[in-house]
Amino acid sequence: MKSPCSAARKSAAVAAFICSSDSRIDILERTLPAVQKFWPTCRYPMYVGLNSCSRALLVGAPVIAPPTEWRREFTQQLAKIESDYVIVMLDDFLIQAPVDQDRLAHLVESTVRLNLDYLRLVPLGRSLLARATGRHPLEIDPGLQRIRERHPFYSALQIAIWRKSHLLSMLDRPMSIWEFERQCVREASHCAIKDRPPIAYRHLVEKGRWLPYARSLLRGAGFPSELGDRPVWPVTRYGQLFVEQLSWVVLGYATR
Predict the structure, then answer these.
(1) CA 143 vs CA 55, 104, 108, 212: distances in Å
(2) What is the CATH number of the domain that holds 213?
(3) What is the Cα–Cα distance from 155 to 215, expressed in whole angstroms?
(4) CA end-to-end distance (rounded Å), the chain
């Protein structure tokens, strides 16, 4: 019987990868139960990035990298996964409903067929301003829109299907995770779905702290709401989030 710390399983065209580390085990303990509940029969090999494998995981096989800064850990973990494409999720994504596996499989097939480097599995959305002026991203295939190079989150780390070699090349450049999401590689094909996300989820953590609604989201998904020792953003963050959301609804990104 193989050790759970062994290298990633034999080659697969597509794999699912949850990006994490030992310092964020407390987050995984609260989000992996939702993966188990709402995605119990994932059609793709699933892996979880860690720095060690001292405990069993509810789902997925660990891929290990020595502790260092996020970009190097991510690169070393990814390199151990033998697949051409990876469905990348961050560890603070709380899945909230059963995954639409047929829809996801269709999007994976479209990514491969269209030779895309990146397909974001969350719609770009349109502000009131964009709707009023009739502006919308170019649709390259039914339901798939090209992300404009000027889009400020051209490489957003929302749930997305990535060509692994492309993702590794982007991680090769020294930058913070915030700078990475704004990175635009010319001649790369970055697209997003127009509607019907196959995976419904919400973020629970921002800049190392639980978001103020993390407890209610966990309860809503049917899980305990206890958050451990990690700090929580104060309730005033609700107001900031509301203002940000209102600004987006009215104006969106100025470059859109």
Answers:
(1) 41, 13, 13, 34
(2) 3.90.550
(3) 29
(4) 53
Q: Is residue 8 part of a domain?
A: no
Would you tell me how many other CB atoms lie within 10 Å of the CB of residue 227? 17
The number of distinct structural domains making up the chain is 1
**Is residue 135 a part of any domain in this protein?**
yes
Is 5 domain-assigned? no
pLDDT tens profile 120-158: 999 987 555 555 665 667 899 999 999 988 788 889 999
pTM, entire model: 0.85
Dihedral sign (CA 81, 95, 163, 184): negative
Contact 153, 122 (CB under 8 A): no
CA 54 – CA 154 distance, rounded (Å): 36
Secondary structure class of 66 (helix, strand, coil)? coil
Structural domain includes residue 1:
no
Residue 162 structural domain: 14-251
C-alpha atoms less than 13 angstroms from C-alpha of 162 in its C-beta half-sphere: 24
pLDDT exceeding 70 applies to what percent of the chain?
Answer: 82
